[in-house]
Write a structure and sequence with these properties.
Helix 4 crosses helix 5 (186-197) and helix 4 packs across helix 10 (297-310). 23% of the residues lie in helices and 28% in strands. It starts with a strand and ends in a 10-residue tail after the last strand. The protein folds into two domains: 3-150 and 315-346, Quinone Oxidoreductase, Chain A, domain 1 (Alpha-Beta Complex), CATH 3.90.180.10; 160-291, Rossmann fold (3-Layer(aba) Sandwich), CATH 3.40.50. Strand 15, helix 8 (253-256) and strand 16 (259-267) form a beta-alpha-beta unit. By secondary structure, the chain is an alpha/beta fold. The longest helix is centred in the C-terminal third of the chain and has 14 residues, at 297-310. It is globular. The protein binds NADP nicotinamide-adenine-dinucleotide phosphate and zinc ion (2 copies). NADP nicotinamide-adenine-dinucleotide phosphate is lined by residues 41-43, 46, 159, 163, 183-188, 206-207, 245-248, 250, 268-271, 292-294, 331, 334, 336.
Length: 353
Amino acid sequence: MSRTVIAWAATSPHELEPMTIERREPDENDVSIDIKFAGICHSDLHTVKGEWAKTEYPLVPGHEISGIVTSIGRNVRKFKIGDRVGVGCMVNSCRTCHNCTEGEEQYCLKGPVWTYNTRDPKEGKITQGGYSQHIVVDQSYVLRIPDGIALDVAAPLLCAGITVYSPLKHWGIGPGKKIGVIGLGGLGHMAVKIGKALGAEVTVFSQTLSKKDLGLKMGADHYYATGDPSVLRGLKRSLDLIINTVSATIPVTLYLSVLRRDGTLVEVGMPPEPLSIVPFALASQRVGVYGSNIGGIRETQEMLDFCGDKNVFPVIETIPASYINEAYERMMKSQVQFRFVIDISSMESRPRL
Ligand code: NAP
Ligand code: ZN
Ligand code: ZN
């Protein structure tokens, strides 16, 4: 039998409110999860605002999910009742294309089934995400949360953590490498922490110096305000890789002068407007601009285990569901330190009428 659960949904680009949604009856491969915490990613906000592709309202956002397994289908071998688990941005993919078979399901050639705002071929309806009490997910897209990671800080790792871990690993960041991180928000602060844990020297570029002490405390070696143009001139040709986590369009061409020959700028921020790049800035030192999209399931598990081993956790502000709209307002003003995480136990047992 399907199950009715409380969720917070956007009914328009302007507001989220409590309502009930139906979760499917678990099948033989499914894991049923009581959600304990859900992180708020800026992608939730882009989607709620309808800034990307079409948004289907009502929409329950949330793809940084941590919780406890409450039941399993008869074919489930990976999990048992009571396990601490996570769900990230994907809940399924075709499993047969070249990218899926290589463990890069996020690049599924048929398009992954995203955790929300995607038509799920299995159910024939639009997926609804983690700002809710419960979710049912195929075992192949569920992650195990290591014992050393509390469930509240585990949640943001499922998107913010893997989104920065994957490109840092892909481009071989480790001891002796120097990286830059643009934007000290949810993704940015995880890039600092994971970059340091991998052994790199980390430079932060933030709009102001207001978070400098916090940035240095979490491990950054250098911290600059981007408002001052002399900063980038002074750093000419010093970094191996820059990861741009900014949710708005910024003049990325300016940062290419900071990269060494063959250096890489990885765009993970996803503003809806195009970026402008001057070809000379690419050609003069053969630098590259790439994008990167979360990470595959196998790599997400690797990242969780890495963060558990190295004690790399996000800095969170835990909020009740009733604070979601205010949290969105603060996120739009870059007033987050550094990830909002919704305590799902705060969801009323009966939604307001
Ligand atoms: P966030 O917590 O809101 O952080 C974004 C940061 O960007 C802010 O804290 C701010 O840092 C900086 N910023 C914001 N507006 C700016 C502006 N107008 N000019 C300059 N800097 C500005 O957001 P997030 O959750 O980290 O997500 C960041 C972006 O990554 C979003 O676009 C999101 O959709 C995208 N994303 C992509 C992936 C992927 O797989 N590629 C996954 C998750 C998220 P300072 O205050 O330090 O300046
Ligand atoms: Zn996200
Ligand atoms: Zn595929």
